[in-house]
Amino acid sequence: MACFPRIRLPGIPQHVIQRDNNRWACFGLDEDFAAYAHWLEEYARQFDVAIYAWVFMTNHVHLLVPLVTVDGVSSLMQSLGRRYVRYFNYTYRRSGTLWEGHFKSCVVDAEDYVLLCQRYIELNPARAGMVMFPGDYRWSSYGANGLGRSVACWTPLPR
Predict the structure, then answer these.
(1) How far is it, in rounded angstroms, from Cα 142 to Cα 150?
(2) CA 47 to chain centre
(3) With contact defined as beta carbons under 8 Å apart, do 26 and 98 qualify?
(4) What is the pLDDT of residues 129-138, one digit of tens each?
(5) How far is Cα 17 from Cα 81, in angstroms, rounded to an integer?
(6) Residue 26 above 80 pLDDT?
(7) Which of 41, 44, 62, 42 is nearest to 53 (CA)?
(8) For residue 95, what is the enclosing H or E element?
């Protein structure tokens, strides 16, 4: 199936979602989350993409990222996806695709909606019943945004 062109407006944040194929687990162990986080930071730096908010759930990922360059987010997701799939397939002795097609993204155009989107992303583990308090979930930007913890790949929202 053809991929529709993405709306690319420099400076406007995007809510990016990458789902596992068939909603199976794409993260099994803490090492998997850590590898994904490491490569997210590496490719975000390489492609000049700031990360305002994120959460890595067991079967999908949410990111809130501004579009700085026209191809930055796409290059980030493509490079990160390829590298992580190679790692995951090798680690779990499997083959084939991991992700459910291309990543999904939508423009977050209203200033107020950026904060609502960030909250939606960071409260995901609590809504899913994985933790009682969002600060207890390690694989989220809530620690940086909500608790002021130092996190390597996090960029605060501009004021």
Answers:
(1) 11
(2) 15
(3) yes
(4) 999 999 999 9
(5) 12
(6) yes
(7) 62
(8) none
- DSSP code per residue over 119-154: HHHHHHHHHTTS-SSGGG-SSBTHHHHTT----TT-
Q: Residue 57 pLDDT > 90, yes or no? A: yes
Res. 7: pLDDT tops 60: no
Q: How many whole angstroms separate alpha carbon 66 and alpha carbon 71?
A: 12
Which tokens in the block code for residue 1? Answer: 């199936």
- Judge whether 140 and 56 are in contact, CB under 8 Å: yes
Residue 105, beta-bridge partner list = 16
Q: What local confidence, expressed as pLDDT, does residue 2 receive?
A: 46
Q: Sort strands 60-66 and 13-19 into parallel, antiparallel or unpaired.
A: antiparallel
Placement of tokens 């999904």 in the chain: 104
Give the confidence band of 3 by pLDDT, cuts at 50, 70, 90.
Answer: low
**Which phi-psi region, left, alpha or beta, contains residue 3 (left: φ > 0; alpha: ψ -120 to 50)?**
beta
The closest alpha carbon to 122, from 103, 145, 149, 156, belongs to 145
Q: Determine the distance from the C-alpha atom of residue 139 to the mean position of all C-alpha atoms in its chain, rounded to a whole number.
A: 10
Residue 86 and residue 23: Cα distance in Å, rounded? 18
